[in-house]
Amino acid sequence: MANLEPCPVCRNQPSHPIKLPCSHIFCFLCAKGAILQNPKCPLCRTNISPSFLNNPHLIQTESIPEITDLNIEYHWFYEGYDGWWLYDKQTSTEIENAFQNQEPFVELLIAGFIYVIDFEEMAQYRKEVPGKVRKIQRAKTDPKIKGIAGLKTSSFPIQI
Ligand SMILES: [Zn+2]
Ligand SMILES: [Zn+2]
């Protein structure tokens, strides 16, 4: 399959690409970050309901196997309502690197917000909203996985 155009937000090959109703294509996390802050397509300003992010239209491309091809032994998860979300590959790699370096916490930009990943509490929270804490875990597998970074597993096959 042909490569997609670069994501208009981050200028990289789209990671977990989704197509908005206006048919523009972005990384899932880039679109999520933009739409949560301003519910419009970042490119053409078409109104996009934030609820669109709950059931996004994922585009099948060669980049999809990248989701499952996490070339690491341990995976990082954060707590959802009835299971665990796997962090996306880039975030997972950054968390694992900080953990391996025995840093007490790491701050990461995820979908437009700064999150603190706290290894002592094994929790994550938004830096500006420290009250909203989610548990995190480092594990080889988890049977109650919901999906990746807010993308439900029903959108694509996943094996870890
Ligand atoms: Zn992007
Ligand atoms: Zn658009």
UniProtKB/TrEMBL annotation:
Q: Which UniProt keywords apply?
A: Cytoplasm, Metal-binding, Transferase, Ubl conjugation pathway, Wnt signaling pathway, Zinc, Zinc-finger
- Tell me which Gene3D superfamilies the record gives: 3.30.720.50, Zinc/RING finger domain, C3HC4 (zinc finger)
Query: What enzyme category does the UniProt record give?
Result: transferase
Q: One GO cellular component term, please give it.
A: cytosol
**CDD domains assigned:** RING-HC_RNF146
Q: Where is the RING-type domain?
A: 7-45
Post-translational modification summary for this protein: Ubiquitinated; autoubiquitinated.
Annotated domain remarks: The WWE domain mediates non-covalent poly(ADP-ribose)-binding.
Designated name of the protein: E3 ubiquitin-protein ligase
Annotated source species: Euroglyphus maynei (Mayne's house dust mite)
Taxonomic lineage from the root:
Eukaryota, Metazoa, Ecdysozoa, Arthropoda, Chelicerata
